[in-house]
Amino acid sequence: MRLATWNINSVRLRINLVLDFLTSADIDVLCLQETKTEDKHFPAEAFTEAGWPHHAIRGEKSYNGVAIIARKPVTAISHRDWAGREDCRHISAQVEGGIQVHNFYVPAGGDVPDREANPKFGHKLDFLSEMTSYFAANRPERSVLVGDLNIAPLPEDVWSTKQLKNVVSHTDIEREGLIRLMNDGSWHDVVRAYFGAAEVLYSWWSYRARDWAASNRGRRLDHVWTSLDLADSVSDVQIHSDLRGAEKPSDHVPTVITIAD
DNA sequence: ATGGTGGGTCACCCA
Questions:
Q1: pLDDT tens digits along A189-214
Q2: Using one digit for the tens of pLDDT, what is the confidence trace for A109-159?
Q3: What's the total number of domains in chain A?
Q4: Gap from A14 CA to B11 C1', in Å?
Q5: Separation CA A131–CA A135 (nearest Å)
Q6: Does residue A261 register a pLDDT over 90?
Q7: What is the CATH number of the domain that holds A216?
Q8: Strand B-proximal protein residues, Cβ less than 7 Å
Q9: Which of A34, A67, A124, A189 is deepest in the core (most CB within 10 A)?
Q10: Contact between residue A227 and residue A187 where contact means Cβ atoms under 8 Å apart
């Protein structure tokens, strides 16, 4: 089974890019973030016609929005509210193979890494803390956690750990928080495990660069974690960096894992 | 130090 996560930054604008990716990468389960549309406008028919007829979607107007798109049935669709808000940043469902999928869009956190000066940063930290408490109390089994977690935890997850030290997404408190979520929540970073500690990995490049590929100032903000019981079932991992160079690209690229059926 | 670009909706929000 091949499972992908992708912050698509408007599923309606990029539906053809997504469909091409599903086909060419032979994806069974696709988790999207930043779909940016209400459920009634979600392009469900296009996915169905292309061969992915099973959907768990949770969107709102203009902002956020998450979805799980699959070839085979998805069941037990649910979500939780985090940090006291009902924004559409989480959906979970069971997919083929009895695998429980949690799909998250963690708040970006604004520009200033200080919860007093910038409430968005406080929201991000609160969201992270609640995830940590939840998964510490509800230890995942036969589960996958994916999404745009908006944190690059390791020096090898950014173009310059020194220059991003005080930049939201790579501050110490966020990095430590994400590691704590992984450890206390009993999750395993299969992408980092597959490529090794020394490999520099990015899944996002800003739109605000003259030439994203030439400057290559990326960050690994998108993650795929498995519960510990599935850690040895992952046989392949790919980050589709080439899609950052697509026509009208998302600023994020898909990450794909192959997991034993 | 600053501003750079892009998406959604319709004067600004968000990333």
A1: 999 999 999 999 999 999 999 999 99
A2: 999 999 999 999 999 999 999 999 999 999 999 999 999 999 999 999 999
A3: 1
A4: 25
A5: 6
A6: no
A7: 3.60.10.10
A8: A 9-10, 12-13, 36-37, 61-63, 107-110, 120, 150, 207-208, 248
A9: A124
A10: yes
